[in-house]
Amino acid sequence: MAGHYEVFRRERHAEPLEHAGSIEAPDDALALVYARQVFGRRGESDLLWVVPREAVLVTPGPERSFDPDYRRVDGYSIKGKLRAAREAAP
Predict the structure, then answer these.
(1) CATH 3.10.20.520, applies to 1-58
(2) First CA to last CA across the chain, in angstroms?
(3) 53 contacts 6 by C-beta, under 8 angstroms
(4) How far apart, in whole angstroms, are the C-alpha atoms of residue 84 and residue 78?
(5) What is the per-residue pLDDT for 77?
(6) Residue 41 and residue 65 in contact, taking contact as beta carbons nearer than 8 Å
(7) Residue 52: helix, strand or coil by DSSP?
(8) Phi and psi for 49 in degrees, rounded to 5?
(9) pLDDT digits 0-9 by tens, 70-85
């Protein structure tokens, strides 16, 4: 039975790891070989992390606000400021 793995790669030393993609492999040893072949065969990766998909912990994103007022243009009324600026201008 094939397992699903997520691959993270780093292009150069001291850069952050980035998600490169997913692979399927029958075991961990072949997952490493497949990851090197797919994501590192041309030397474009300095480092690869291969992680079983079920070992990746997922957190929920930020809660969405149900208050859409911040998106409304009329929520940021500048008419008064513009009027005051026009009156103060010479």
Answers:
(1) yes
(2) 80
(3) yes
(4) 10
(5) 65
(6) no
(7) strand
(8) -115, 130
(9) 555 555 567 777 888 8
Q: What are 23-65's pLDDT values in tens digits?
A: 999 999 999 999 999 998 887 888 999 999 999 998 888 777 6
Q: Dihedral of CA 43/45/50/54: which sign?
A: negative
Three-state DSSP at 66 gives: coil
The single residue listed with the structure tokens 């513009």 is: 82
CA neighbours within 13 Å on the CB side: how many for 11? 2
Task: Give one DSSP letter per residue of 10-33, joined into a string.
Answer: ESSTTSPPEEEEEEEESSHHHHHH
Q: Where are the alpha helices (DSSP H) in 24-78?
A: 28-39
Is the CB of residue 77 less than 8 Å from the CB of residue 69? no
DSSP character for 64? P
Extract the tokens encoding 8.
């993270």
Token pair of 80 as six digits: 């008064």
